[in-house]
Amino acid sequence: METNFELYKVFYYVAKHLSFSEASLDLRISQSAVSQSIKSLEESLKCRLFIRSTKQVRLTQEGELLFQHIEQACNLINAGERNLQELQALKQGEIRIGASDSICKYHLLPYFQQFNKLYPEVKIKVTNRTSPVCLDLVKKGAVDLGIVNLPRAAANSCKSFQVTPVQTIHDVFVAGPAFAHLQGCTIPLADLAKYPLLLLERNSVTRDYFEDLAARHHLRLAPEFELGSIDLLIDLVKIGLGISFIAREYVSRQLAAGELFIVNVDIPITSRHWGVATAVNIPVPRAAQKFMELLQTDIGN
Questions:
Q1: Which of 2, 37, 135, 171 is the most exposed place for a label (fewest CB within 10 A)?
Q2: What's the DSSP call for residue 276?
Q3: What is the per-residue pLDDT for 301?
């Protein structure tokens, strides 16, 4: 089947925005030309791709299937174009990074600063998502690099991803002055069930790691609070609402100031890493390669 690629390009932008008007703005063509292109593509493929009403545009089942393939193809083409642009000694272009808020705040800020000093003409575009979602964005080609918490990324790296660990993370249990009687003590892990636990929400790598730790010791430790923000988690621990499981690196300032302390437990907690993930079947743009090299250096992080 031979179909004009321009029709697929129009389809991509309509499906991306779920809007004919926004697609026309991106493509710099009229909205009627967008509609005609979609009509031609639907006739060529002999199926309906969109359900249109006065208020919204939705993909049909066939449209969803086609978009999964077209999205990856367009991202590959865009990556190729950016690679060619960046051959001019990184005097232009952009780097697209997927990373969680916590990784950006606690790990990446000095690297962003240094990269911007070295290559001020290169734009840094950051998409904030959880590590599992960042991996999906890498796989689709929507971002060049996924800066993710391991080990979940490592488990998926064998087929779709190349994952390079960068720095170590040490998970600990922490509490505030309200639980001062635990300071300096070593308690059985099972005894944590007696205390309110404040944890990150499910589908985060840190939460998965906690659940795995409890399961390995045949424990069921239910949280009192489940949160999506590490900063809010730290604040709630400081005011005495419970004990949390969090990376020591994220609370180093509070530990040094005596606002929090580590609750020692009777089992070792294995350290893990955060690292960078790239798709094995998508070329890494030059700007992204330079950022990866920077991550391997010690710049006082």
A1: 2
A2: E
A3: 47
Q: Are strands 272-279 and 197-200 parallel, antiparallel or unpaired?
A: unpaired
Decide: 39 and 8 in contact? Cβ < 8 Å: no
Q: Where are the alpha helices (DSSP H) in the chain?
A: 5-17, 20-27, 31-45, 61-85, 101-103, 109-118, 131-140, 152-156, 205-216, 230-238, 252-257, 286-295
Question: What SS3 string covers 142-202?
Answer: CCCEEEEECCHHHHHCCCCEEEEEEEEECEEEEECHHHHHHCCCEECHHHHHHCCEEEECC
Question: What's the pLDDT score for residue 3?
Answer: 61
Q: For residue 229, give the nearest of 253, 261, 199 by alpha carbon.
A: 199
10-residue mean pLDDT series, the chain (301 residues) = 78 92 92 92 91 87 92 84 68 87 92 94 91 89 92 57 91 96 94 94 87 91 90 95 95 96 94 92 89 82 47
10: β partners: none
Residue carrying structure tokens 């070329």: 283
Q: According to the model, what pLDDT value does residue 152 have?
A: 54
DSSP state of 107: I
Q: Determine contact, residues 15/70, Cβ cutoff 8 Å.
A: yes
Q: What is the pLDDT of residue 88?
A: 61
Query: Shortest CA distance to 99 belongs to which of 36, 144, 49?
Result: 144
Give the containing element (helix H, strand E) for 279.
strand 272-279
For residue 235, count CB atoms less than 10 angstroms from its CB and return exposed for 0-12, middle for 13-18, buried for 19 or more.
middle
Strands 94-99 and 123-128 turn out to be parallel
Q: Furthest-apart CA pair in the chain: how many Å?
A: 74
Q: What is the pLDDT of residue 232?
A: 94
Q: Which two tokens stand for residue 16?
A: 């991306």
CA 5 to chain centre: 31
DSSP assignment, residue 283?
P
CB atoms under 10 Å from CB of 259, counted, come to 15
pLDDT in the model for residue 53: 81
Residue reference for tokens 């993370």: 169
